[in-house]
Amino acid sequence: MEEKRNADIAVDEMDPTFLFIWKGTRDKEKWIKEYRSHDFLEIAYVLSGEGKYRIDDRIYDVREGDLVIINSGVMHQALFCPQVEVPTTEFFVGFSNIRISGCPANYMPLPNGECVLHTTGELSQRLFRLCSSMEAENAVRRQGRYFMLKSYLIQMLLLVIREQCEPMERPRGCDFETANRKYVVDKIVEYIEDHYNEKISLDQIAENMYLSPFYISRIFKSETGSAPIRRLINIRLEKAKELLEGGYQGSIQEVAAMVGYDDAYHFSKLFKKRYGVSPSQVRRNS
Predict the structure, then answer these.
(1) What strands, in cross-sheet order, belong to the sheet with 17-25?
(2) Exposed, middle or buried by CB within 10 Å (0-12, 13-18, 19+), for 259?
(3) Residue pLDDT tens, the chain, 286 long
């Protein structure tokens, strides 16, 4: 386990000015950028994939679960890496006006002067959830939006500081990717169960998760053994079977529509393949 930077990092002021959030996936057009610096702080959390950063003329490899800290005045550049299988999808937060004891204004310390914090286990899950919460809050634009976003930012900053100050015992074998993937799979299943009767696609599920369709399909299959769309079909058929066994008297077309299918014939074929009997037979038997 990496040793903590020190045990006495103190926060003089934790009243940051929230500036912006932005989420993106690297491609040739978006990510070949100038080597630059700015007068505010920026955090980039890697939601998925892998890539590289050039920071103060040093190249850093980053991957899912990494948190990149770009302090004020630091030269940096996100690099496009065509050779990687899954390019990075990153969540960015810009802010200013923080003060840490012993550090310049607008400076976030990391162990050994590094710029990348490799997160694992519970910390990675909490950061992932904060990013999702900030994205959702920014989308709805309700009253008090700025202060909600600022509160999430403060939580994020304190998690990074606590990680350096408080020794924590982690369970053996605790792996960021495994823990975070389970959370993503749970959220996909939750979304499917809430929207199974609507016309939803893999792209819609991915957009809801703020991740790429390729990524969620890959991890869902690796964690569950099946594709997200297969889970959607199974849930729809289970709901239809519950309706038929519960005495619903509407037509098979209506049953199909209630679980998200426009084509009753296609629905019936899927149903019979799954249960070995037609929807009509299930109704008669009930």
Answers:
(1) 17-25, 89-96, 41-48, 66-70, 116-118
(2) buried
(3) 344 444 444 555 578 889 999 888 876 555 556 778 888 899 999 898 888 888 888 888 888 888 998 888 888 888 777 677 777 888 999 998 887 777 777 788 776 778 888 887 888 889 999 999 999 898 887 888 899 999 999 998 888 887 776 554 443 433 435 557 788 888 889 889 999 998 888 888 887 777 778 888 888 888 888 889 999 999 999 999 999 988 888 899 999 999 999 999 999 999 999 999 999 998 888 7
Residues making up the chain, counted from first to last? 286
Rounded distance between C-alpha atoms, residue 271 and residue 236, angstroms: 9
If 0-12 CB within 10 Å is exposed, 13-18 middle and 19+ buried, where does residue 66 land?
buried
Predicted TM-score (pTM) of the model is 0.56
Residue 130 amino acid letter: L
What is the sign, positive or negative, of the torsion defined by CA atoms of 115, 116, 122, 127? positive
CA distance 6 to 223: 37
Candidates 138, 122, 34, 52; CA nearest to 90 is 52
Burial class (CB in 10 A: 0-12, 13-18, 19+), 255: buried
